[in-house]
Amino acid sequence: MTTQVLLYTQDPTKIKQIHDSLINHNYFLFFANKREEIEIVLKNNRKMALLLDINEMNDGYQYCETLSLLYPEAFIILVGDEQELNLINALRSGANDVLSYTAEEDAIVEVLNRVEKHFKLKETQAMNKEQDQNGLVITACSTKGGVGKTTLIVNLASVLSNENLKVAVLDLSLQFGDVSLYYDVKPKKTIYEWVKEEYGVPNTDLSKYMIKHSSGVDIFPAPIRPEFSEAITEEHIHDLIQQCRRLYDYILIDTPPYLTEHTLISLEKSNEILLMTFMDLPTLKNNKIFIETLEALNLKYKVRIILNRYYKVKGIHPETVEKIFELPIFAQIPNKEKDITASINEGKPYALTNPNSAFSKSIKFLARKLIGSPNEINIK
């Protein structure tokens, strides 16, 4: 094992079981009982797992949040009494995992395995980042049709484009894609024509197959006929995304409400996965299974939960959603279905035509979080 572990506690006897497991698995250990010591160690050791005993702290979760912001590369595990630990609060505060004092050996080993997997993924990401050029890929997905994926992609793309960013939308709902309809444009050429006419040709000009919308967004439409999708392979999607990365700041991808090989490629190539959900039980159940699938593929760390058409539901609250998914809600979109439907029929992104609405403000807030901007995003 190459990962180093820092143990912080005021009472070493409480974490003896965890300590012994670390020793048995040949982890290199540091110890601290003062906060200053934690920060000294983390400053000088980038690949570090921190086991933070919060039982003696009045501000354990707040302090964890501070550490996660100051040292984002650290893998933070909160330790305490099983009754006191709250996984959702831990995730919100920036922790990666939790362990109780009385955790069994198997549970401790499972967390240690996640630590190793985490750092291996980080190394892979760093290598991929060096290889990839420029553009960031954001994919919207869900296990339910009509959950608002296309609406989100179209409006988010328009907001990002208004920030003087080069934005492309790829419609990978290859059989029945509606992105062109939402923008009120009629494609003459689509991804199908690109595959048939110029795939594999050096220095392909993608712009010939894209539609420039008045909002500044470039649209790569889905095939006009469902059967044309059969000509498009995962390799085509992989290479298309790579080409777009060299041309655009942001590539937003719309997907169908089921997993295909094309969707899996887009998820693997994505920097962020926006998982759209409602608060009804069937959607929550299926999205939970979807998250478990992504976890098996080592993609769960990319998932951002988007609670769409949020309104109060008896017996189900946002906290319920977070508990089911074991992930915090990244953004909430208010329920403005009638207004949005009207804008779709007009072919105009609602966030541009009604910039001061609650819906538009939520999209701008989401955009700000995704691009990491502390400033307000303004519609020009």
General description of the model:
The protein has helices at residues 16-24, 35-44, 60-70, 87-92, 105-131, 149-161, 179-182, 191-197, 234-247, 261-269, 281-296, 318-325, 337-346, 350-353, 358-371, and strands at residues 4-8, 28-32, 48-53, 75-80, 97-100, 136-141, 167-171, 211-212, 218-220, 250-254, 272-277, 303-310, 329-334. Helix 1 crosses helix 5 (105-131) and helix 6 crosses helix 15. It contains 15 helices and 13 strands. The protein has two domains: 4-129, Rossmann fold (3-Layer(aba) Sandwich); 132-371, P-loop containing nucleotide triphosphate hydrolases (Rossmann fold, 3-Layer(aba) Sandwich). It has 380 residues and is an alpha/beta fold. Helices cover 43% and strands 18% of the residues. Strand 12 (303-310), helix 12 (318-325) and strand 13 form a beta-alpha-beta unit.
- Our Rg estimate from Cα atoms comes to 23 Å
Bulk shape: elongated
CATH superfamily of the largest domain: P-loop containing nucleotide triphosphate hydrolases
The CATH architecture term of the largest domain is: 3-Layer(aba) Sandwich
Strand order, largest beta sheet: 8-9-7-10-6-11-12-13
Task: Please write the CATH class name of the largest domain.
Answer: Alpha Beta
In whole angstroms, the N-to-C terminal distance is 53 Å
Estimate the mean pLDDT confidence.
87
Strand element count: 13
Give the low-confidence spans. Answer: 374-380
Biggest sheet statistics: 8 strands, mixed
Question: What is the share of helical residues?
Answer: 40-55%
CATH topology of the largest domain: Rossmann fold
